C-alpha cells in the first residue's frame, strides 16, 4: 500500500507535474485541499527555502502527515533577480502571466542575449510528523527571450529560452521539461531523501 504524501499547493498545473514526477514511488501524492487543509498560509519568508518551510510546517501541523512544499520562481539577473520570491504575486496576485511576461520582455528591451541570463529556482521542503525537516534547491538556467513561444508549460515558461535546446521551456514536451526543470530536479533529489 502506498504511503500518503501531501503536497502543499493549490495549483492544478503544479500538482499534475508533481504526480507525473512522483508516479513511480511508494507515495500517493495528494494536494493540501484533498488532505482537508483549508487554511491560509502567509508566505512571509525572504528566501525560497523559508517560504517552502513555512508552507510545509503549517500543513504538517494541521494534517499530521508527511508534507512537501515548494517555493519556486524566476530570477532575472539583469533585473536584480526579480521577480524572485514574488514571482507568483509579481504585478499583483490576479495579473495574468501574459501581462507579466510582456512586462518583463519590455523591461529587457535593448538588452543583449548575454545579459538576459535567468533561472527558474525551486526550493522543496519536507516536514515529517516527528519534526524532521529537509530542504533543498535546484535550478534550471536559461535566458529571457524576446517573445512568448510554445503551447506547453505555464507561468513564465513561454518567455524562458533554453540555449542548449534552442527552444523555449513552453516548447518542450512535458516529459522532457519534467526531466530538466528546476522542480523536476528538486523533486527527484527530494525523492532520494524520502526513500
List the helices and strands and how they pair.
Layout: E1 3-7, H1 12-21, E2 27-31, H2 48-63, E3 67-76, E4 82-83, H3 97-107, E5 117-127, E6 133-144, E7 160-162, E8 167-168, H4 174-180, H5 182-194
Please characterize this protein's 3D structure:
Helices cover 29% and strands 26% of the residues. It is of the alpha+beta class. The protein has one domain: Maf protein, CATH 3.90.950. Strands 1, 2, 3, 4, 5, 6, 7 and 8 form an 8-stranded mixed beta sheet that branches. Helix 4 crosses helix 5 (182-194). It is globular, with a radius of gyration of 17 Å. It starts with a strand and ends with a helix.
Question: Descriptors for this entry?
Answer:
Maf protein; 195 residues; alpha+beta; 29% helix
Overall strand count = 8
Write down the secondary-structure element order.
EHEHEEHEEEEHH
Please state the second-level CATH architecture.
Alpha-Beta Complex
Helix share bin: 25-40%
**What is the overall shape?**
globular
Instruction: Give the integer mean of the pLDDT values.
Output: 93
